[in-house]
Protein backbone atom coordinates (compact mmCIF):
# COMPACT_ATOMS: atom_id res chain seq x y z
CA UNK A 1 0.00 0.00 0.00
CA UNK A 2 2.79 2.44 0.85
CA UNK A 3 3.93 2.53 -2.79
CA UNK A 4 0.50 3.56 -4.02
CA UNK A 5 -0.18 7.21 -4.58
CA UNK A 6 -3.11 9.14 -3.13
CA UNK A 7 -5.03 9.10 -6.47
CA UNK A 8 -4.61 5.33 -6.70
CA UNK A 9 -5.75 4.70 -3.14
CA UNK A 10 -8.67 7.03 -3.57
CA UNK A 11 -9.79 5.38 -6.75
CA UNK A 12 -9.69 1.94 -5.16
CA UNK A 13 -11.66 3.16 -2.13
CA UNK A 14 -14.21 5.11 -4.13
CA UNK A 15 -14.92 2.00 -6.15
CA UNK A 16 -16.11 0.35 -2.93
CA UNK A 17 -18.25 3.18 -1.55
CA UNK A 18 -21.88 3.52 -2.63
CA UNK A 19 -22.47 7.08 -3.81
CA UNK A 20 -24.77 8.37 -1.03
CA UNK A 21 -22.10 7.55 1.56
CA UNK A 22 -20.00 10.53 2.59
CA UNK A 23 -16.26 9.94 2.68
CA UNK A 24 -14.69 11.98 5.47
CA UNK A 25 -10.94 12.21 4.88
CA UNK A 26 -9.17 12.25 8.22
CA UNK A 27 -6.41 14.82 7.87
CA UNK A 28 -4.95 14.78 11.38
CA UNK A 29 -1.16 15.07 11.06
CA UNK A 30 -1.46 15.30 7.27
CA UNK A 31 0.60 18.18 5.81
CA UNK A 32 -1.18 21.03 4.05
CA UNK A 33 0.19 20.25 0.55
CA UNK A 34 -1.23 16.72 0.79
CA UNK A 35 -4.60 18.08 1.85
CA UNK A 36 -4.49 20.38 -1.17
CA UNK A 37 -3.80 17.36 -3.34
CA UNK A 38 -6.84 15.61 -1.86
CA UNK A 39 -8.91 18.69 -2.56
CA UNK A 40 -7.70 18.78 -6.15
CA UNK A 41 -8.88 15.17 -6.49
CA UNK A 42 -12.38 16.32 -5.60
CA UNK A 43 -12.48 15.59 -1.86
CA UNK A 44 -14.34 18.16 0.23
CA UNK A 45 -15.06 16.57 3.62
CA UNK A 46 -12.12 16.65 6.01
CA UNK A 47 -12.06 15.31 9.56
CA UNK A 48 -9.90 16.47 12.45
CA UNK A 49 -9.85 15.34 16.06
CA UNK A 50 -8.41 18.50 17.60
CA UNK A 51 -9.98 21.93 17.35
CA UNK A 52 -6.68 23.77 17.41
CA UNK A 53 -5.01 21.70 14.69
CA UNK A 54 -8.12 22.16 12.54
CA UNK A 55 -8.10 25.92 13.05
CA UNK A 56 -4.52 26.15 11.83
CA UNK A 57 -5.33 24.05 8.77
CA UNK A 58 -8.54 25.87 7.96
CA UNK A 59 -6.62 29.12 7.99
CA UNK A 60 -3.89 27.75 5.72
CA UNK A 61 -6.59 26.48 3.34
CA UNK A 62 -8.85 29.52 3.52
CA UNK A 63 -8.54 30.03 -0.24
CA UNK A 64 -10.46 26.77 -0.80
CA UNK A 65 -13.97 27.95 -0.13
CA UNK A 66 -16.04 24.79 -0.06
CA UNK A 67 -14.30 22.51 2.43
CA UNK A 68 -16.58 20.96 5.02
CA UNK A 69 -14.80 20.30 8.31
CA UNK A 70 -15.87 17.47 10.60
CA UNK A 71 -14.84 17.23 14.25
CA UNK A 72 -14.29 13.57 15.09
CA UNK A 73 -12.42 13.80 18.42
CA UNK A 74 -13.38 14.56 22.01
CA UNK A 75 -14.51 18.15 22.48
CA UNK A 76 -13.66 20.03 25.65
CA UNK A 77 -16.22 22.49 26.81
CA UNK A 78 -13.80 25.44 26.66
CA UNK A 79 -13.29 24.73 22.93
CA UNK A 80 -17.00 24.41 22.15
CA UNK A 81 -17.47 27.92 20.82
CA UNK A 82 -14.45 27.66 18.52
CA UNK A 83 -15.66 24.26 17.36
CA UNK A 84 -19.06 25.61 16.37
CA UNK A 85 -17.41 28.36 14.38
CA UNK A 86 -15.38 25.90 12.32
CA UNK A 87 -17.21 22.58 12.10
CA UNK A 88 -20.62 22.14 10.42
CA UNK A 89 -20.47 18.53 11.64
CA UNK A 90 -19.49 17.31 15.11
CA UNK A 91 -19.38 13.49 15.26
CA UNK A 92 -18.03 13.20 18.79
CA UNK A 93 -20.72 14.52 21.14
CA UNK A 94 -20.01 12.23 24.08
CA UNK A 95 -21.83 13.65 27.11
CA UNK A 96 -24.99 15.47 28.06
CA UNK A 97 -22.89 18.33 29.41
CA UNK A 98 -21.24 19.00 26.04
CA UNK A 99 -24.55 18.62 24.17
CA UNK A 100 -26.12 21.18 26.51
CA UNK A 101 -23.15 23.51 26.12
CA UNK A 102 -23.46 23.35 22.31
CA UNK A 103 -27.18 23.98 22.61
CA UNK A 104 -26.60 27.04 24.75
CA UNK A 105 -23.92 28.45 22.42
CA UNK A 106 -26.05 27.79 19.36
CA UNK A 107 -28.65 30.28 20.53
CA UNK A 108 -26.30 33.02 19.38
CA UNK A 109 -25.12 31.40 16.12
CA UNK A 110 -26.80 31.55 12.75
CA UNK A 111 -25.82 28.07 11.53
CA UNK A 112 -26.38 25.22 13.97
CA UNK A 113 -23.91 22.38 13.57
CA UNK A 114 -25.20 18.90 12.85
CA UNK A 115 -24.34 16.67 15.78
CA UNK A 116 -23.75 12.96 16.11
CA UNK A 117 -23.70 11.17 19.44
CA UNK A 118 -20.63 9.00 19.97
CA UNK A 119 -21.70 5.58 21.24
CA UNK A 120 -19.66 2.79 22.80
CA UNK A 121 -21.42 -0.35 21.64
CA UNK A 122 -19.39 -2.28 24.24
CA UNK A 123 -18.26 -0.74 27.52
CA UNK A 124 -14.67 0.53 27.31
CA UNK A 125 -13.25 2.73 30.05
CA UNK A 126 -10.46 3.87 27.70
CA UNK A 127 -12.87 5.51 25.28
CA UNK A 128 -15.11 8.52 25.24
CA UNK A 129 -18.75 8.04 24.38
CA UNK A 130 -22.11 6.96 25.74
CA UNK A 131 -22.83 3.37 26.61
CA UNK A 132 -26.19 2.27 25.30
CA UNK A 133 -27.88 2.43 28.75
CA UNK A 134 -26.39 5.90 29.34
CA UNK A 135 -27.79 7.09 26.05
CA UNK A 136 -31.25 5.77 26.85
CA UNK A 137 -31.11 7.52 30.20
CA UNK A 138 -30.06 10.84 28.64
CA UNK A 139 -32.71 10.73 25.95
CA UNK A 140 -35.37 12.87 27.66
CA UNK A 141 -32.81 15.63 28.28
CA UNK A 142 -31.35 15.36 24.78
CA UNK A 143 -34.71 15.53 23.08
CA UNK A 144 -35.43 18.77 24.94
CA UNK A 145 -32.49 20.62 23.41
CA UNK A 146 -33.90 23.34 21.17
CA UNK A 147 -30.92 24.79 19.33
CA UNK A 148 -28.88 21.81 18.20
CA UNK A 149 -29.62 19.32 15.46
CA UNK A 150 -28.85 15.81 16.66
CA UNK A 151 -28.92 13.89 13.40
CA UNK A 152 -26.94 10.71 13.93
CA UNK A 153 -24.73 8.31 15.84
CA UNK A 154 -21.01 7.65 15.60
CA UNK A 155 -18.98 4.72 16.87
CA UNK A 156 -15.43 3.38 17.01
CA UNK A 157 -15.15 -0.38 17.43
CA UNK A 158 -13.01 -2.15 20.01
CA UNK A 159 -9.80 -3.66 18.60
CA UNK A 160 -9.27 -7.33 17.92
CA UNK A 161 -12.55 -8.36 16.31
CA UNK A 162 -12.88 -10.59 13.25
CA UNK A 163 -14.52 -9.09 10.13
CA UNK A 164 -17.74 -10.95 10.89
CA UNK A 165 -17.80 -9.68 14.47
CA UNK A 166 -17.16 -6.14 13.28
CA UNK A 167 -20.04 -6.16 10.85
CA UNK A 168 -22.32 -7.63 13.50
CA UNK A 169 -21.34 -4.96 16.02
CA UNK A 170 -21.57 -2.11 13.50
CA UNK A 171 -25.09 -3.22 12.62
CA UNK A 172 -26.11 -2.47 16.22
CA UNK A 173 -25.64 1.27 15.56
CA UNK A 174 -28.42 1.77 12.97
CA UNK A 175 -30.58 -0.59 15.03
CA UNK A 176 -30.03 1.62 18.07
CA UNK A 177 -30.77 4.68 15.94
CA UNK A 178 -34.07 3.16 14.85
CA UNK A 179 -34.99 2.60 18.51
CA UNK A 180 -34.22 6.21 19.38
CA UNK A 181 -35.90 7.71 16.36
CA UNK A 182 -39.20 8.51 18.01
CA UNK A 183 -37.21 10.93 20.18
CA UNK A 184 -34.42 12.13 17.88
CA UNK A 185 -34.46 12.47 14.07
CA UNK A 186 -31.44 10.21 13.48
CA UNK A 187 -30.42 9.47 9.91
CA UNK A 188 -26.60 9.51 9.86
CA UNK A 189 -24.35 6.65 10.97
CA UNK A 190 -20.67 7.58 11.08
CA UNK A 191 -18.77 4.32 11.34
CA UNK A 192 -15.84 2.66 9.66
CA UNK A 193 -12.16 3.60 9.54
CA UNK A 194 -9.36 2.39 7.27
CA UNK A 195 -9.25 -1.14 8.72
CA UNK A 196 -12.96 -1.80 9.03
CA UNK A 197 -14.89 0.40 6.59
CA UNK A 198 -16.04 -2.48 4.32
CA UNK A 199 -17.86 -4.02 7.29
CA UNK A 200 -19.27 -0.63 8.29
CA UNK A 201 -20.63 -0.08 4.78
CA UNK A 202 -22.21 -3.53 4.81
CA UNK A 203 -23.85 -2.63 8.13
CA UNK A 204 -25.37 0.64 6.90
CA UNK A 205 -22.79 3.40 7.41
CA UNK A 206 -23.75 6.74 5.86
CA UNK A 207 -20.35 8.33 6.62
CA UNK A 208 -16.95 6.65 6.83
CA UNK A 209 -13.83 8.26 8.27
CA UNK A 210 -10.60 7.29 6.55
CA UNK A 211 -7.11 8.46 7.39
CA UNK A 212 -4.29 5.96 6.84
CA UNK A 213 -6.07 4.17 4.01
CA UNK A 214 -5.94 7.39 2.00
CA UNK A 215 -2.87 9.21 3.22
CA UNK A 216 -0.64 6.38 4.42
CA UNK A 217 0.62 5.76 7.95
CA UNK A 218 0.77 8.71 10.30
CA UNK A 219 4.07 9.44 12.04
CA UNK A 220 4.21 7.91 15.52
CA UNK A 221 3.36 10.39 18.29
C1 LIG B 1 -7.88 8.88 13.32
C2 LIG B 1 -9.34 8.62 13.28
C3 LIG B 1 -9.94 8.02 12.17
C4 LIG B 1 -9.15 7.52 10.98
O1 LIG B 1 -8.45 6.38 11.32
P1 LIG B 1 -7.61 5.57 10.21
O2 LIG B 1 -7.35 4.28 10.87
O3 LIG B 1 -6.40 6.39 9.94
O4 LIG B 1 -8.49 5.46 9.01
C5 LIG B 1 -11.31 7.84 12.18
N1 LIG B 1 -12.06 8.24 13.23
C6 LIG B 1 -11.53 8.80 14.32
C7 LIG B 1 -12.42 9.21 15.44
C8 LIG B 1 -10.15 9.02 14.38
O5 LIG B 1 -9.62 9.59 15.46
TL;DR?
The protein is 38% helix and 19% strand. It has 221 residues and is of the alpha/beta class.
Write the topology of this structure.
Elements: H1 6-14, E1 22-26, H2 32-40, E2 45-48, H3 51-60, E3 68-71, H4 80-86, E4 89-93, H5 96-106, E5 114-120, E6 130-131, H6 132-143, E7 149-155, H7 163-170, H8 172-180, E8 188-190, H9 197-202, E9 207-210, H10 212-215
Parallel strand pairs: 1-2, 1-9, 2-3, 3-4, 4-5, 5-6, 5-7, 7-8
This protein binds pyridoxal-5'-phosphate.
Description:
It is built from ten helices and nine strands. By secondary structure, it is an alpha/beta fold. It has a single domain (3-215), classed as Alpha-Beta Barrel (TIM Barrel), CATH 3.20.20.10. It is globular. Bound molecules: pyridoxal-5'-phosphate (PLP). Pyridoxal-5'-phosphate binds at residues 26, 28, 49, 72-73, 156, 193-195, 209-213.
| CATH architect. name | Alpha-Beta Barrel
The main sheet comes to: 9 strands, parallel
- Extended strand count: 9
Task: Tell me, briefly, the overall form.
Answer: globular
What gyration radius follows from the Cα positions, in whole Å? 17 Å
Query: DSSP helix count?
Result: 10
List each distinct ligand once: pyridoxal-5'-phosphate
pLDDT average, as an integer?
95
Order of helices and strands: HEHEHEHEHEEHEHHEHEH
The CATH topology turns out to be TIM Barrel
Regions with pLDDT < 50 over 5+ consecutive residues?
A: none
Given the helix and strand composition, which structural class is it? alpha/beta
Approximate helicity band: 25-40%
- N-end to C-end Cα span: 21 Å
The CATH class, by name, is Alpha Beta
Strand percent estimate: 15-25%
Number of domains: 1
Output the CATH homologous superfamily. Answer: Alanine racemase
